């Protein structure tokens, strides 16, 4: 038996936290019959204890892009055995924020604040990554709990006259018209993604997810619905994906060789019936290219470029269908994550085993139920390890971990 406090310390933080005898979220006993949901997943230099991840979810709670104790408590509450946690959308520069209360990682103060969150995660043997983003023409909005897609004026701490985009096309009628980016400004943005990738490594994040979905800047370049450029960044498919490829190359250049990079895409603009929209066929072509550029996992979502207040039929595949199609297309060449309407462990395991994807990401389910991983384990009848600070209260399962 261990009696020394020094021996009990994880040694992974600047303060005392208990050493975990096993990764939280891992099955007590891994066998051939263990459901895929609770099997490990290796991605370059990290290994997930299970296939359940926390999806990025904006909380609009930062000041000047700096994380606060609220973020520390919020993300700490989510460290309950998920295979990975992906931090909410984090801006690469001040104008790249969606709202005035978004996180950033473009200043040293921001890096230091986020380092406290990664330190806590690592002290609990949790893996945590960051989603790097630029909002483009969808910046300077109000937090969604104040207004659904409402533009923020200067009085609301917004920057409506400083929005940038591939083309001078507003997201919707009552939004400001963004400034069309110059070639020099595009080059600067690529470099800023690189700087923030280096900052992310410094802050201790275990991986980076590049946000190229939901109608934000990179997605705006991809879709000819929002990109009307006539230079090397517009027109053809090859030109419209150029900005994304330059960002990927820059990020891969500045992070260690064994460092994982995820990519979130909107597989479609949710309107296959609109000629100019980004379509499933475009995504199938894109994933072949980005996998060769060093992307390890495709995080599949949908929509965002086309504003539809009353969308009705989506004229497109669902998020889960899209993930299944992408995985079938790439096979073992890369990993695929699925999102969208996953509410139980049996359903999550079916997405993995029957639909073939590698990881399920959940958002709002974790907000309501931080114990989701444990709940899903009960659903598929797997005994898992939770942190010793909590797990001791639930014998005999905890005590069977010899």
TrEMBL record:
Domain NADH:flavin oxidoreductase/NADH oxidase N-terminal: 36-372
Required cofactor(s): FMN
Native species: Komagataella phaffii (strain GS115 / ATCC 20864)
Cited Pfam families: Oxidored_FMN
Keyword annotations: Flavoprotein, FMN, NADP, Oxidoreductase
SUPFAM superfamilies: FMN-linked oxidoreductases
InterPro entries found in the cross-reference section: Aldolase_TIM, OxRdtase_FMN_N, YqjM-like
Protein name according to UniProt: Widely conserved NADPH oxidoreductase containing flavin mononucleotide (FMN)
């Amino acid at each position: 038996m261990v009696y020394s406090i020094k021996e009990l310390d994880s040694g992974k933080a600047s303060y005392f936290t208990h050493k975990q005898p096993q990764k939280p979220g891992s099955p007590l006993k891994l066998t051939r019959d263990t459901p895929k949901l609770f099997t490990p997943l290796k991605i370059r230099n990290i290994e997930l204890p299970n296939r359940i991840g926390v999806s990025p979810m904006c909380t609009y709670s930062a000041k000047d892009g700096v994380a606060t104790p609220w973020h520390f408590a919020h993300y700490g509450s989510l460290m309950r055995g998920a295979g990975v946690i992906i931090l909410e959308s984090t801006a690469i520069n001040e104008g790249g924020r969606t709202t005035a209360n978004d996180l950033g990682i473009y200043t040293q103060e921001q890096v230091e604040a986020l380092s406290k969150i990664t330190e806590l995660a690592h002290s609990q043997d949790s893996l945590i990554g960051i989603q790097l983003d630029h909002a483009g023409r969808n910046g300077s909005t109000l937090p969604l709990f104040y207004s659904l897609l409402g533009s923020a004026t200067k009085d609301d701490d917004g920057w409506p006259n400083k929005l940038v985009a591939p083309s001078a096309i507003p997201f919707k009628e009552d939004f400001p018209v963004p400034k069309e980016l110059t070639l020099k400004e595009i080059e600067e943005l690529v470099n800023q993604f690189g700087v923030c990738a280096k900052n992310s490594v410094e802050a201790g994040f275990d991986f980076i997810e590049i946000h190229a979905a939901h109608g934000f800047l990179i997605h705006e370049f991809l879709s000819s619905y929002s990109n009307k450029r006539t230079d090397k960044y517009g027109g053809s498919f090859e030109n419209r994906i150029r900005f994304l490829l330059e960002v990927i190359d820059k990020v891969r250049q500045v992070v260690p060789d064994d460092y994982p990079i995820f990519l979130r895409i909107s597989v479609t603009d949710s309107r296959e019936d609109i000629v100019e929209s980004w379509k499933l066929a475009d995504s199938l072509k894109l994933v072949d290219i980005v996998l060769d550029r060093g992307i390890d996992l495709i995080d599949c979502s949908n929509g965002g470029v086309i504003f539809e207040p009353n969308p009705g039929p989506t004229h497109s595949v669902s998020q889960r269908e899209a993930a299944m199609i992408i995985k079938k297309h790439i096979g073992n060449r890369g990993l695929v994550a699925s999102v969208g309407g996953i509410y139980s462990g049996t359903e999550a395991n079916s997405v993995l085993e029957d639909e073939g994807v590698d990881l399920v990401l959940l958002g709002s389910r974790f907000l309501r139920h931080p114990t989701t991983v444990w709940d899903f384990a009960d659903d598929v009848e797997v005994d898992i390890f939770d942190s010793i600070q909590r797990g001791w209260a639930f014998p005999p399962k905890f005590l069977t971990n010899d």
